[in-house]
Specification:
0% strand; 120 residues; mainly alpha
Amino acid sequence: MDKLKILIGKALETVTLRNEISQYRDKISHNYHFSSLICKSPEMARILGFVRKIAQSDATTILLQGESGTGKDRVAKVIHYESSRGGRPFMDINCTALPETLIESELFGFEKGPLPMPSR
């Protein structure tokens, strides 16, 4: 009977945690829609059109570049939450915070073993 009580308690906890995670993801995703991007200039409207195309694509890795304060983080989140991947976790990698030797393995993965010799 004690084991059953523990099992039921764990099952209830799992259901509660899953519901909380779902509510949290819904709350976050509601903040990041195309309508949250402000574009008054024709250039920004053109960029927003490009952002829409990226969100609809099958791309899984996107590199955004630009000056500090231009809204790269917001655009990245809009792309993520407006895409078919919106229900999955958002992975934000700040490349300036990584040593140069780790950037490639963080973005594209790492495979153990010797490096191939370059052909000449």
